[in-house]
Amino acid sequence: LSLSVCISSRELFSPSQKYQLLVYHADSLFHDKEYRNAVSKYTMALQQKKALSKTSKVRPSTGNAASTPQSQCLPSEIEVKYKMAECYTMLKQDKDAIAILDGIPSRQRTPKINMMLANLYKKAGQERSSVTSYKEVLRQCPLALDAILGLLSLSVKGAEVASMTINVIQSIPNLDWLSVWIKAYAFVHTGDNTRAINTICSLEKKSLLRDNVDLLGSLADLYFRAGDNKNSILKFEQAQMLDPYLIKGMDVYGYLLAREGRLEDVENLGCRLFNISDQHAEPWVVSGCHSFYSKRYSRALYLGAKAIQLNSNSVQALLLKGAALRNMGRVQEAIIHFREAIRLAPCRLDCYEGLIECYLASSSIREAMVMANNVYKTLGANAQTLTLLATVCLEDPVTQEKAKTLLDKALTQRPDYIKAVVKKAELLSREQKYEDGIALLRNALANQSDCVLHRILGDFLVAVNEYQEAMDQYSIALSLDPNDQKSLEGMQKMEKEESPTDATQEEDVDDMEGSGEEGDLEGSDSEAAQWADQEQWFGMQ
């Protein structure tokens, strides 16, 4: 209304007041998420400011409008340009955002402008410019942790980053932990999960940082990256107890719960997160994991796309959407999403696993082998990379012996690594070395309980005619994950193959008929219909 009055009667408002009105109007549009309109009004405001700066005197106002000095209470031109850049980023026009911020002279750039520029440069792949901007942020604000993480993610050495903060660390009491914090996240960004875990654990045990939710979340994520899902879930649960409104990292937590078949817990987690905020990617990813493991791939695809819309840098959302596309047979589209996940998180093995699974699904064994070798060289020879390379080698009859060697190395490093145990069992099954397989699986299950391991042990026991114990293993597997289709199929197959004419079992069959236990078996068959539509353990199809 005031702008209309201003246009109709230029005498009522001074040029500086018109500039203020345009900025206030643009701010209102920005908060209403009308970003294109806001950009238009901010542009008009900057034009008005430019005209204002050319006039040496402010035009005197009339009426009730009080005359004020031009410099008094005027919105900063730099702040207006920052708001324009924010609008462009919301509109996914990063080039325009960079252009508007680049137009601000270096000396006039505030830390938040340099921070936005650094993030935009990083996203655009302009690493050198991004590093320069992050360093400028640290020069002005040596305790800007996001700038520290940004530099570490761009492969700047931890020692160099620490040197930029050393003066502040030494001048402020009780801040010596920060150098250890930087060291820990330097390990994180080089993919050295073991040393990162040990360093963060040492931080978390200190009285000053004990029960810190952010450190617990980082620790949970590192355990997940290292393949230690049990400890990862434990740390996520600790963080949740300390902060019931925690959202960060809950997408990974939901994924882990879904993998374990705890779909009811996943559903409850999704509902709780939606009650906290539906403007973050995490609730949508958690609900998407529930749909994926319920074999509702179309819904999982939609939820993953919604999560990406809210946060295009959500690695877990990209992995969810990629997995849904792969299971729907849209492998080429899935490959695009896994590649983007790798770009965002080059040290996360699960991103490479998804891409390699796509290559194998499309019979591109050569591409899968090249990728697996690259991962092995980049992330080092640990149990996870060795197992991933062995997985590809198992697809080619020529490289079976190499797969065996790789799996033996992986199990030497980590005898409890489930994926390595599963792949070694698969190899022993091909060679029909069932007794060796049973020994391997019993050893792996001595200190842990896992649905897949119990199910495979059941399969091996069937092969050596140990039917009763096999049935027990299938039952344990289903108690851990009621949605495990293969365990259910194993039980049903055994029930169908049981013959009443078998001399050794004839009396038992008669006794079962007399005692009504047959009805129990029929009941378990009827339950199969409920389980038949549920998802298998992810990645073991």
From TrEMBL:
GO terms for biological process: cell division; positive regulation of mitotic metaphase/anaphase transition; protein ubiquitination. It holds the Pfam family TPR_8. Residues 504-525 have a biased composition (Acidic residues). GO terms for cellular component: anaphase-promoting complex. Keywords: TPR repeat. Residues 489-499 have a biased composition (Basic and acidic residues). PROSITE patterns: TPR. TPR repeats lie at residues 315-348, 451-484. Residues 489-541 are annotated as: Disordered. PANTHER family: ANAPHASE-PROMOTING COMPLEX SUBUNIT 7, CELL DIVISION CYCLE 16,23,27. This is APC7 protein. The lineage of its organism: Eukaryota, Metazoa, Chordata, Craniata, Vertebrata.
